[in-house]
Amino acid sequence: MSDNQSVGLSVEQSVRQSVDPSTELLGFDNVLFPVGDLEEAVSFYERAGFPVAHRIDEIGLAILKVGKETPGILLRVEEGVEHRPSAWFAPRVWLEVGDARAAGRALEAAGIEALAPTSSVATGWTVEIADPWGNVVGFTDYRKRPELARS
Length: 151
Known about the structure:
Structural class: alpha/beta
Largest sheet: 4 strands, mixed
Strand order of the largest sheet: 1-4-3-2
Helix content: 10-25%
Order of helices and strands: HHEHEEEEHEEE
Distance between the termini: 11 Å
Strand content: 25-35%
Number of helices: 4
């Protein structure tokens, strides 16, 4: 779900504003995260609940599944990428889950520390984590606005 939907604008309103259908945004392909070590990154994301769809160690690449969709999170080893703490101004990707509070508890049980306690947002609840390279992933639900949730 988009931020537009959480503030009351519909996807249809956004699409109608598009002038050229060939440039219409259709959805996400993959989200690319640079990492310094593929084995460490895959281990972290598997503990966070992301199954590996494809892995090509020779080129330092792994694609993680996100739900039933084909696009996912692409981890790519980049030279010079080192561990760093997450900054609050770092880019983020939020993924929809059925219950963000339960996701937060599962992450904690897997030894993954949240950036902050699970918090209330306009549509439900959200919890965020950062990998060792500072890439931020949020898990959000629509428990307060179920009509906006995926079915």
